Amino acid sequence: MTRGPQSRKPRFRTVHEIQGRLRLKSNQLRDPHLDIEYVSALMLAQPGVKEVRINPSAACIIIRYSPDQDAHAARERFLKVLHNLPRDAWSPVPGSPGGPDRTGVAGRALAAALTPVLPRPVAAVMSWTLAAPTLLKGADTLVNEGLKVEVLDASVKLFALIQGDYFTSNTVGAMLSLADHVEHRAERKTTDLLSGLLRPQVETVRVRRNDLDVQIPFEETLVGDLVLCGPGEMSAVDGTVVEGEALVNTAAITGESVPLHVAPGDELLSGGVVEEGSLVIRAQSVGSDTSTARISGYIQRSLRNSSEKQERTEKLADRLAPITFGLGLGIFAFTGSLARAASVLTVDYSCAVKLSTPVAVRSAMYAAGKEGVLLKGARALESLASADTVIFDKTGTLTQGALEVTDIVPLDDAAGAADRLLALAAGAERHYSHPIAAAVVAAAREKGLDMPEMSQVDFIVAHGVSAYVNEKRVLAGSRHFIHDDEKVDCTAGDRKARSLQEQGKSLLYIARDGRLEGIIAMRDTLRPETASVLDGLRSLGIRRLVMLTGDQERVASALWTELPELDEVHAECKPEDKARVLEKLKAEGRNIIFVGDGVNDAPALAAADVGVSMPSGAELARDMAQVLLMKDDLTGLVHARQLALRTDQILKECLWTSVGINTALLGLASADLIPTVVSAAVHNGSTLGVLAYAGMRGAAPPRALLTAPPADWENATAHGVEDDAGDSTAGDAVK
Fold first, then answer.
1. What predicted TM-score, i.e. pTM, was given to this entire model?
2. Which single residue of 72, 248, 444, 490 could bond 272 by disulfide (Cβ 3.0 to 4.6 Å)?
3. What CATH number belongs to 400-526?
4. Using 50, 70 and 90 to split pLDDT, how confident is the model at 328?
């Protein structure tokens, strides 16, 4: 039975320490189930840590940190983290060792160089000793896993040793060691690039110590510190508000698009930005313990998962190993030459094929992260590349997710009547927490209007607002509230109201002293980048673009008129209807990307081949999605598709380049045209070249594809829908 992480309580001891550098040792680092990369990323997220190196074979971890930190406090902090590793630090599948370190590589290279000048008996003992681990590993692999590259490596060294060609054995061993070191370093480097994206975006924080407000480096923040946050500043710690009140934008953390009002006693997560007011927060979690740093483990877990294509490629590479082995044995059987057989056996297809995939995937994840897109591993990339259909939930994805005033229609034709109507509505609505109220107040503030003081304000849930100004009663709400409930005649505005509703706009009726004053229209406006994103997706091979919305058909029709790039629009969708649309399209054989942001989108995000969540999405939606857009910009979806297609192309190029070079080498080695050492050098050199190509090209930023919208785009979309839009062909086709 496999031991659980709770039974693997690691104990670390200090073996060497100088200011800024700490070396710890624990046999737990040899545990094959311990995810070394996860532990490395966890320690890198600690405040002040600059570099982490782990050597599993030596059971050592070296931590380099900022030398201006207190050494004792830093050591105790690091030990606390290592002694309490989370459950996610252990993988159910044993991992591979981290590869030889530089000292081991240098030692093998020196041994190979000295072999020709050493006495024959000494060279023999040294060569067999150095080859022993490779021979034992090859035998174990042959017995337990079958013919794989480890068996080929062991056979090459064994044939050379049997011939007494110690120089070839040690030189091949040195090259294998160097290649293994560089390959693991390439993987670690790309992982470190990802980890670098997770570093806190706050470099300094203001804290109150000894009744003085001081600014300190972020990494020096301690649990219990009083952290000060003013307007525009981000909370870098998780903690409790002890002083002050503020509106805090927590969209990036909780998915709540409306700023959160916090006061003393409230809990606040790191990553929230203070919009108004100021706070004093008592830090409860700092550094890697904060909510924003937990994403480190999130990425490390995603790296454990291979895509289906990656698994197929690795199986193909493993199937080629027996062919190479059989060819080597055949060469020996026909020629009796162990040297020619060894030359053939130095060539295998699996190294470059297997290792280029994680390097390319991690490089793509890094490039995506630089563009504000978080990818959950290889499966997300593969699904993005193979998708042919994108389904959007309308609100908060194609649209801004917030209402804006588009039309102000006073019944009074006098000059300035529109501004007076807006100011009156804003005065009544400004204390009401509702999207319509927020839109009206924002429009009045943008125009610099003075809002009249109201008294006896009464909010009627789901209807509107009642208030008094200058002893006259003001009403703001729906037509049903004003006309039916309050008996104010609204028929004078019906013709204009119908026209506005056909354009998909929501209406707010304003009455004063028993008389209708006018109508204010608003709607959830399109994102400025929406049209160009749809065009960009189409140019990247997406064949069908679909929008789902819970809005009425006339609203969906008006939006479709503005977005002719859409192929399908489904109106009045309930959550179960979204799942039904997905099932129908999947039954047609389509590979689907679903883009959403709400709790009710979670089933669709899970059912799609790949789910994409907006940054303001609800926490459940963000958890279910395989792709997270970290910027409030749909352009990230196009970048993700570009990177996925490019990664797919890189992997194909790496595969066929490796197959071509190694097939040529097999031919040359079989014909006895190259010796074993040259064959090994070319093979390992080509492998390193393939890895370098995968890493460098994979990490390059996506090419510019989208063009900026025209300068008058907002005006065109705000007022460009004619009164007969509801009768358009697009509108009739809404499902």
1. 0.62
2. 248
3. 3.40.1110.10
4. confident
